[in-house]
Structure formats: structure tokens, C-alpha cells
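Why do we care about 3D structure at all? Because function follows from shape, and shape follows, mostly, from sequence. That is the central idea of this module. The next example makes it concrete: a single protein chain, its amino acid sequence, and then its structure expressed as C-alpha cells.
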Amino acid sequence: MENTDKQSWLEERKDLFVKNVLRDFTHSYSFFLKIEKKYRDAGITYEGLDNWVGTQTDRGTLWVLKDNCHRLWKDIDPDSQPEPFFFDWMVGAIFHEAMKLKENVYMVDRYHPAYQVASTTTTAYDWQEKCQHFFEETLEDIQRGINRLENLFVCAAEHLKSLLLTERDNSLLVRFMLEHKSDINKLWQKSGGLNQILDAMFPSGLDGAYCMTGENYLEGSWYVEARMAFIEALKINPDCQEAKTGLRILEKRLKELAHMLEREYTLANSNQVQGNGLSDSETFAIPEAINSSVDTTDEA
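And the structure:
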């Protein structure tokens, strides 16, 4: 019974978890590209690595990503669902490689400077040569770790892309993709970028993606964002009936909200006048912003 309840809880939140996987993978990959460039240019430092990976009591972005992938896909059948299976495996490998990289960088960052000072102020001993050899090996491990992480991230990004194509109905995911187009484009800039993914998800046109996003905003009462999404859909396809319907529903809700607030202000003014004997000029006024937010143009 407990496993059934747990599975039901996960299914109800699956869209959110998948969206968070894309979010955390994007952030993790972006951070890796920064430290990789820093390593190639001037050498890596420990700064930021601890927050990237995290600890058991204070999980970093990579740790959360690994846990969410396992939560979603660790028990799936690789024969029937190879993409999520391999993506989950690769994220796990990325996490453990990042853990090793973090420890190696800490070793060099923390102890190598002290060793260098000691080696110039004391008589040469066998331990100095052994320590130098140890640090050289650690630096080689760092280079190998960077190279392995680069390959793993590239492969994982391609598996994630294939995985996302099966999430056509996940409005939270589609909304996130449109909100973070620039960051996500960097992941797949060599293989068509985000537009290629969205084109495959919405073969009838990207107006469908913006309509889905607008409906998601509307459901959460993000009215300004909903309007912008529906308008973007109409820019792509001026005949998009779904976007026109979404705008009509939006305007209706805004008018209902304005009327509700008007009644509330009227009631509040009435009570204030009766209780305090105020004049009309001293009563509340309905903010102009509420009325001006309602579009009075033709809704046809």
C-alpha cells in the first residue's frame, strides 16, 4: 500500500519533477562549462564546486538532479525506455565524477601551496619527491576528470533531448523552455538548438507551444505573462484560434476581477462612511490600474 501511495504521489508531480530535471541539468551544465573554460585558461579553483555538488546535509544542484533522476527513472525497463534509463545513468556518472573532481581540486587548492612553501625552506628529503609526485598525479586526475565530465555532459544532453520529445503535454516543461530559451540553447547549439526540439514537439507550429504556455500562466493567474504568450502565438500564426480563445478568456477574467474589486471598494467605502461619517471625497477610490488592465478592444 505504501509503495502504491508513493507511486501515485510521484505520478501526480511527474511534470514538475521533469521540469526541475531540465532546470537543474541546464544550471549544472552551464556551471561546468564555466569551470572548464577557467581550467583551460588559468587553472581550476575550489570556489563554487562545493555548492555545485553539495553534501548529504546540504545538497547542491548536481546532487538534487541525481536524486530526482533516480526518483523518476531508476526502476524503468531499459528495453522499453532506453532514453530515460541512459540519461539517469549518465547523470549518476556525472555526479560521481564531479565528487572526485571536487576532492582532487580541494587537495591541490588547499595543500599544494603549503607543500611548495615547505619544500623551499627545509632540507630535501625523500618525502618531498613523493609529495611532488602525488600532486602531479592529482593534477592529472583533475585533467582526466574534466575530460570525462565534458564527454558525459555532451552525451547526457543528447539523451535528455530525446527524452524531452516524449513530454509534449507537459505544460510546465514547455513554459520553462520558452522562459529560458537562451540558457537551453547553449546545451544544444551544435545540434539545432531549442527550436529544433520545439519543432519536433509541436510539428503543427510553435504557436501551439506558446498557447500551452499561455494557458498554464492563465491557470496560475499570471495574467500579464498569459497575454504575452497568446500574443506571441498570434505573431507566429495570426489565425490561431486557440490563442484568440485564450485572450477572450483572459479578458473575461480581468473584467470579472475588476467588477469584484469594484464591489469590494464600494462596500468598504460604505462601511467607512457609516462608521466614521466621512465625506465622499475621503472615501476609497478604485485604482486606475485595475480598470486600465482590461482590454476594451474588439474581441472578435
